[in-house]
Specification:
The protein has 4 helices and 5 strands, in the order αβααβββαβ. By secondary structure, it is an alpha+beta fold. The protein has a single domain, classed as 3-Layer(aba) Sandwich (Glutaredoxin), CATH 3.40.30. It has a 5-stranded mixed sheet, sandwiched between helices.
Length: about 130
């Protein structure tokens, strides 16, 4: 295992622990770097927060980050759950944000066609 793999492992563990310490089921991290904002990330975030509020969903934490390294696919967002699983969505529009809330956050199903990556969580013994 090289230093980069160890750093990724550390980051995943920290995120997992941060979620485990709360009563939240999911954390949504929205990229708010320069290219994300230019591509419409503010509208995506506003739509997502509005949709969560309309549905009375209070088990989702919404956070922002800088660039996620996918500037050609902005706006991007990542949905993390308590198991450590992470699903990244790309080219998210306000309409897509509503689908992510309805299907993934409320329905526990990854939104096919929008998801561009998935990382399984770390479990004991893996």
């Amino acid at each position: 295992m090289n230093i980069e793999e160890l750093q990724k492992l550390k980051k995943m563990a920290q995120q997992h622990l941060a979620l485990r310490g709360t009563k939240k089921k999911y954390r949504v991290v929205i990229s708010m770097g320069t290219s994300a904002i230019a591509a419409g990330a503010r509208e995506v975030m506003t739509t997502m927060l509005d949709e969560l509020d309309k549905r009375g969903i209070d088990y989702v934490e919404v956070a922002v980050s800088g660039e996620m390294g996918l500037s050609v696919a902005e706006p991007t967002l990542r949905v993390e759950d308590k198991s450590g699983e992470q699903v990244t969505y790309a080219k998210v529009t306000p309409t897509a944000a509503r689908r992510i809330v309805a299907e993934h956050l409320a329905g526990d199903k990854i939104v096919e066609g929008l998801a561009v990556g998935k990382v399984k969580g770390l479990r004991k013994g893996e």
